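Following up on my earlier thread - several people asked me to post the actual chain instead of describing it. Fair enough. Here it is, all 180 residues.
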Amino acid sequence: MSRATRSVTGSIRYLDEAPDSVSAAARTALAAFGPAWSMHAPHADGRPWMGHGYAAARVPTDHWLDAHKALKAAGFVFLRDHTAVDYPDRTPRFTVVTSLVNLETQEELLLKTRVAEGDAVPSLTPLWHSANWAERETYDMFGIPFSGHPDLTRIYMPEDYDGWPMRRDFPLQGHLRFQD
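Reply from S.P.:
Thanks for posting it. Predicted structure:
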């Protein structure tokens, strides 16, 4: 079966068609949102880049919440993780990622969206209470806002802290406020 490559970013090829490992339920749930499915280049020794072989799909930010609703209805009821990755030399700069699990089938799926600095991502707190903490952490560390979040405040850093410590351009020694 041939698959048309949509785009290539680094070692990741984005395809129009889902990998064979993706269930029919996940394919159907995401079909309406125009997912780009990712394949990762293997390590030099042939092992898959992602240790557990997770499939990954990227959807536009305006479909972020609806895509998660559809996946949850399709059995992906466990939100294992919710975070971001910073690519300062790429436009848009950030990739927001969730890790979802179908507890009945043990299928695991990553869902991604790309977001520019200052743009908001719809909050997943209406679907999972655990998204509350994860989105606050992502906001606090990367500065990515989540629209519709019930309490988007810093969780680790002081409210008046200037900067986003997990950004790749953040100074390694931080912003020193006190010196001896």
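The chain is about 15% helix and 25% strand. That should answer part of your original question.
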